Amino acid sequence: MNKEIEDASFKRELGLLDGTMLVVGSMIGSGIFIVSADIARQVGSAGWLILIWVLTGLVTVVAAVSYGELSAMFPKAGGQYVYLKEAYNKLIAFLYGWSFFAVIQTGTIAAVGVAFSKFAAYLYEPLSDTNILYSVGSFHLNAAQLVSIVTIILLTYINSRGVRESKILQTFLTIIKIFSLLGLIVGGFLIAANTEVWNANWADAWSTRSFDAQHGSWISIGGTALLSGIAAAMVGSLFSSDAWVGVTFIAGEIKKPERNVGLSLFFGTFIVSVIYISANLMYISVMPLNEIAFAKSDRVAVAAAQYIFGDVGTITIAVMIMVSTFACNNGLIMAGARVYYTMAKDGLFFKKAAELNKSSVPGWALWFQCFWASFLCLTGKYGDLLDYVVIIVMIFYILTIYGIFILRRKRPDLVRPYKAFGYPVLPAIYMVVAAAICVALLVTKFSTCGWGVLIMIAGIPVYYLSKPKQEATQ
């Protein structure tokens, strides 16, 4: 092995701003521009639409600030994988890492790549999924899939050149993304806000109904049907608010990680939650609820931009979403590889993934991730990927936050520069809410969420088959 690579180590080149931009940039992808349509169809009123986003914001911020305690205790590469290993054991940590590689991170990268290509096709039709480039049997390669894969390969290459290049790109694109979203929100309120539309949307704000696609009509819901509708609606909002945990994976490259990781988590999730709630308030100030629910291809932001800026607005918003998804995937690709690196160090992933290249980044881990995410672009549908991802993500968030309680008992001597805000009440409330969402998802979307859980469980025999490899690294 090349000695330069063997002796390489992570460089601490990221500050508080970089960490916060990674959180914000990874969280804001395509969801806020799309998923409000499905949420509106599931709950059927402006009040419930906003409540879903407020609840999602609260749940996300509580989870993030709870992770602050863990990030301060274990300020090293690997983040959540390390927390689970320390609180439980290698098996639980491996199941997370296995799910992370199989579905969570790579599935998210694929879904965001698909969203990028969807809006690229809005600007240039030949890039759409209807343009079939190659067929063999039942398999069809379309232009949208190719665009998705090309962007993932390009971003992987940029990240393989070093953390400095990727952090500059991340910060630059994220700042553009934030100001573009704020421009859309402020423009909506100042230019297109319609008092009659606003009042009409709020006139029956708390009626509970859901759109029955089979019969093409709205039906009133209550009781368990309402709870199921809320859970189904929150798939989109939770997916849109996920990926904040990525900053914990790169703790080994952050200056003063015991302070800056926790602050990045709080500032990042708070900023995004405020932007998301504001965007949805803007939507219901310029568009009747039915137009939100049935926006073409669920592109709510494009429909809102038409009201605000006219025809030029739809082109502007498509470009903005492409920038947003590109920055989102840059953050996801940068952060994800650090988990595989840490797993490989424990003998739980391909050995090559434990190597840093001459730019002091885990190059092999980046390319393994690139290959699998590209494969998922060829096989996965956007909606199904969301269901697979959200159920597993929520399960491991619950386990990780419960890990705070375990470590307080098991290792009270560990230095805790920061302690979970509102402990034990807020972390406990989070676990109860998240568990309820998981149960509701399994009941209402078993065909997809059930597969997600099955993929996670399938990691158990893989773990025991890898035992000799683990022992060889010890």
UniProtKB/TrEMBL annotation:
GO molecular function annotation: L-amino acid transmembrane transporter activity
The leader peptide range reads: none
Localization per record:
Membrane
User: Entry's InterPro entries?
Assistant: AA/rel_permease1, AminoAcid_Transporter
Q: How would you describe this protein's topology in the membrane?
A: Multi-pass membrane protein
Keyword presence, Oxidoreductase: no
Any stretches that span the bilayer, and where are they? 21-40, 46-70, 91-116, 136-158, 178-198, 218-239, 260-279, 315-341, 361-382, 388-408, 420-443, 449-466
UniProt keywords (A-Z) are:
Membrane, Transmembrane, Transmembrane helix
**GO cellular component annotations, sorted alphabetically?**
membrane
| Pfam families hit by this protein | AA_permease_2
Q: What is this protein's record name?
A: APA family basic amino acid/polyamine antiporter
Naturally occurring in which organism (per UniProt): Pedobacter cryoconitis
